[in-house]
Design brief:
Length: about 270
């Protein structure tokens, strides 16, 4: 369903072709793609579209879905001044900044991902944690978007997620998560990401698919116990996009130091 927000502001028009100047954000996951338009002058979201599909790892399918969603929002009617792509896949690894050597991305990645000779690897720096997220981008999608818009800013979803929730909310996190150990659970449609920090450094990070609340609780408890942490006392922050009283009650049965943060979807992590 096409959602159009009422911003109350007149959108800035391009003098060259009378089209509306916008920022374009695209978020691609294995099971859906979201496109979002912001007006150039105020940065306000005025259009969001989501397209669901069967979970896949096929980059050619992803490209077709991106073309489809751009067609749905009639992207050619706009003057896109800053396109941004954020994508999620499992072809990544974290490397501490003290061990990182630029140009050796595939060397690091080969220990966690099966690579081909033609694969291209790149990295994002996560300053708050002093690590590099090394990953494989979707080259075919990047090339298509660059050809279409003449430029592209792209990031791995994990980079944006960690920066958004750990940097933007650093003061809140510092105030509400005391002690050297902390755990964060990011819950989205059908999958979750678990991050465990110890003394400000990543001790554990992984993604899981889930079908029920029991699955979420199982993965959280298993991850904490595997790192020899007491899940009853370890501070836990749970990010999810809906409010559910039963959800919170079940969590509090197992976790004695848990807080819940509602985020409102893709616009909050961009």
């Amino acid at each position: 369903m096409l959602v159009q927000a009422e911003t109350g502001q007149q959108l800035l028009m391009s003098k060259q072709n009378n089209s509306i100047k916008v920022y374009l954000n695209i978020v691609l996951t294995p099971s859906y793609v979201v496109s979002q338009l912001r007006d150039f002058e105020g940065g306000n979201i005025f259009l969001t579209e989501k397209l669901d599909f069967e979970k896949s790892s096929d980059s050619n399918l992803f490209l077709l879905k991106i073309k489809e969603i751009l067609n749905i929002i009639n992207i050619d009617l706009y003057d896109v001044v800053e396109p941004k792509l954020i994508f999620d896949n499992d072809y990544y690894t974290f490397v501490p900044s003290v061990l990182y050597l630029k140009g050796k991305e595939k060397t690091y990645l080969k220990f966690s991902t099966e690579l081909n000779d033609y694969d291209f690897a790149t990295s994002d720096f996560i300053e708050k944690l002093s690590i590099y997220n090394i990953y494989l981008p979707y080259v075919n999608i990047n090339n298509y978007l660059i050809d279409k818009f003449q430029k592209l800013e792209f990031y791995h979803f994990n980079t944006v997620l960690l920066n958004s929730f750990l940097i933007r909310e650093s003061e809140i996190i510092s105030a509400s998560v005391p002690g050297p150990d902390s755990c964060y659970c990011f819950i989205k449609q059908g999958y979750l990401k678990i991050l465990i920090l110890k003394n400000g450094e990543i001790l554990f990070f992984n993604s899981y698919n889930y079908n029920s609340l029991d699955d979420i609780l199982y993965y959280l408890i298993l991850s904490l116990k595997d790192k020899n942490l007491e899940y009853i006392n370890t501070p836990l922050r749970v990010y999810r996009d809906n409010e559910n009283q039963e959800f919170e009650i079940r969590f509090k049965e197992f976790f004695g130091n848990v807080s819940f943060i509602k985020y409102f979807g893709v616009e909050q992590i961009l």
